[in-house]
Amino acid sequence: xxxxxxRRSIRRYTAQPVTPAQLEMVLKAGMAAPSAENQQPWQFVxxxxxxxxxxxxxxxxxxxxxxEAGVAIIVCGDRTLEKIAGFWVQDCAxxxxxxxxxxxxxxxxxxxxxxxLLPDRVKALRxxxxxxxxxxxxxxxxxxxxxxxxxxxxRFDAWRVHRNHx
Length: 166
What we know:
Structural class: alpha+beta
CATH architecture: 3-Layer(aba) Sandwich
Strand content: 15-25%
């Protein structure tokens, strides 16, 4: 539970590199996510090429931190792996959250950068990474050592909890 409450959106990173073992743990956490009928419709593109990371802010206005992060994981849905059409979004979102939590557990930081449902971002990322038509990018997760400290936050709001009826 402490990892859940400590996880915060990190937008500044140090130059310390993420190790291959850490990156593999983050990816394993993503692949451990639940999915509808166990379809596991995810694909992950690991981007550590500096030129590609630096180009993403040209079309994604909230991704400037990629110029500091040494690596990013692009969480994608693979429609050829779907058993239930459209559920890839929920499944890949669960995978992304698992990766955010694992990054925190490993002393790393990350932030969810939305791509899907914004056609210009989907198109530009698809072109930059050479994604085939059946692969749709959902989110970008920069991964790195935090260059900022944020306190844990309690967002519980009893007003948003309804019992047995609205």
